[in-house]
Specification:
Elements: H1 5-22, E1 29-35, E2 42-48, E3 50-52, E4 55-59, H2 67-75, E5 77-82, E6 85-96, H3 105-114, E7 118-124
Antiparallel strand pairs: 1-2, 1-5, 3-4, 4-7, 5-6, 6-7
Protein name: Deazaflavin-dependent oxidoreductase (Nitroreductase family)
GO molecular function: oxidoreductase activity
Pfam family, one: F420H2_quin_red
Length: 126
């Protein structure tokens, strides 16, 4: 049970606007900066990010069909703003992992409760 479309719409309208201001400065959070597939418009979406040696992993709490995920996949990458730093990322790939192995143990438990098993892996551009 990934979070519902109804929750996604509410977050897009309400929560993201509030969280969006804080996300680039808080640990564990980032703002994904991506471009619309057809509009070409710039979008910013707050997400939880987890650093890996070569890049980042994002739990897809709304599933791999969320607009921002599709935008990042179509563009072949994105930027994130985390802790005040802008980081370019490339090679996006969706990974289905029911064991949630790339997540910290505490996070695995929470994601399991919501049935999250898809993750977006991105490689940092050197």
């Amino acid at each position: 049970m990934v979070l519902s479309k109804r929750v996604a719409r509410f977050n897009k309208v309400a929560t993201n606007r509030v969280l969006g201001r804080a996300a680039p400065r808080l640990p564990g959070l980032a703002m994904v900066v991506h471009q619309g597939r057809t509009s070409g418009r710039r979008y910013e979406t707050p997400v939880n990010v987890f650093a890996r040696p070569d890049g980042y992993v994002i739990a897809l709490t709304y599933g791999p069909d969320a607009d921002w995920v599709r935008n990042v996949l179509a563009a072949g990458g994105c930027e994130i703003v985390s802790k005040g730093e802008t980081i370019r990322l490339t090679d996006p790939r969706v990974v289905h992992d029911e064991a949630r192995t790339d997540m910290p143990k505490r996070v695995r438990f929470i994601l399991a409760r919501f049935g999250v098993t898809d993750f977006l892996h991105l490689r940092r551009v050197d």
